[in-house]
Amino acid sequence: MPHAILVRQAGGPEQLSWEEVEVGDPGPGQVRLRQTAIGLNFIDVYHRSGLYPQPSPFIPGVEGAGVVEQVGPDVEGLKPGDRVGYAGPIGGYAEERLIAADRLVKLPDDISDEQAAAMLLQGMTVDMLIRSVWPLHAGDTILIHAAAGGVGLIMCQWAAALGATVIGAVSSDEKAELARAHGCHHPIVYSKQDFVAEVVHLTDGKKLPVVFDSVGRDTFVRSLDCLQKRGLMVSFGQASGPVEPFAPGLLAQKGSLYLTRPTLFDYVATREELDRSAESLFDAVRTGKVKVDIGQRFSLSEAAEAHRALESRNTVGSTILTVD
Ligand code: NDP
C-alpha cells in the first residue's frame, strides 16, 4: 500500500505521521496521481497547527507533481502517463493521491517534476501579486518581506526582471546575500536595521507605493509606515502569526492607505485563470526571468523535519519533499 503523512490532531511537527493509506479508484472528474515530488509551503504549517482548521484526520500538502496513473469517469484531456502538477487541493503529502482533474496543469517537457513541485504555488502567487494585485511597472520600487524564502526569491527575480527596484527584508546576512544574488537591489537585515528607517532612507523620504508583507503580526503596522499616501498594503501571509485586529481608521491615520489580503486560490479559481497563471510562470522560467532555487530536499517520510526547518527560518528558497 502507498504511504502518506497524516495529521490526526492539530499541533506541532510531531503530529505528522508516516502511515499506509488506501487510495482507491478515481471518482467522476478525478485522477489517481503517482507523485514524484511534493512542495513544502508555509500554508502546510497553518494547516498542521490548526491556524487554518481541517477536518481530521487529514493529509496536508497543497502542491505536487507526478504522473497520472488512472483516470476516472468524465475526465477529458488527461490520460495515464501524462506528467502533471498542481497547487491547491489539500492531500499532497502522499506517494499517491486522488485529485480533481480540473485542478491539474499539464507540465511542458522543459519543466521538470521537481521544478513544478518547487514553484507552482509560490510562483503563481508571485504572478498574482505582481500582475493582478499590483500590476508592476518598470521603475516601481517595492518592499518584499522574507525575500530569501520560497515566494521571496521568485519575487525578487521576477520583479527585477520587469524593471522594478526591489527592497527585501531578511533575518540574516547570509539571506541578504542570497536575495541580492536573486535580483534584490537593497536587502535589509531587519534583525540589525530598522526596516522602516531604511525604506525612508533608500527612497529619499518618498517611501513606497506598495509593500508585500507575508510575515504578518510582527511587521504589519511597520509595513504601513513604509507606504506613501494612498499606497497599497498587500498582506498575503502570516509566518509570524495572524495580524492583530485593528480599526479601519488606522489606514486613514497612516495616509489613506489601501489594504488587500489576497489568497492565490481566488485568483486561479477558473480553468482559464489557472492556465494563464501557470503559463505565465512557465514562460518566466523559460525566458530566464526566474530560476527556481530548491534550497532543501527532505524525504516525504521526514516531513516533520522539513516543518521544523521551515518554522525555525532555516530554509532558503523552495523546499521539496522527495518520494523515494
Ligand atoms: P518562506 O520560505 O518565505 O518561509 C517563511 C519565512 O518567513 C522565513 O524563512 C522567515 O524569513 C520569515 N519569517 C518571519 N517571521 C517568521 C516567524 N516568526 N517564523 C517563521 N518564519 C518567519 O515560506 P513560503 O515561501 O512558503 O511562504 C511565504 C509566505 O507567503 C508565507 O507567509 C505564506 O503563507 C505566504 N503565501 C501566501 C499565499 C497566498 O495565496 N496568500 C500563497 C503562498 C504563500 P526570514 O528568516 O528572512 O525572516
UniProtKB/TrEMBL annotation:
Keywords assigned by UniProt, alphabetized: NADP, Oxidoreductase
Ranges where the Enoyl reductase (ER) domain occurs: 11-321
CDD domains, sorted: QOR2
Gene3D superfamilies noted in UniProt: Medium-chain alcohol dehydrogenases, catalytic domain, NAD(P)-binding Rossmann-like Domain
Protein name in UniProt: Quinone oxidoreductase
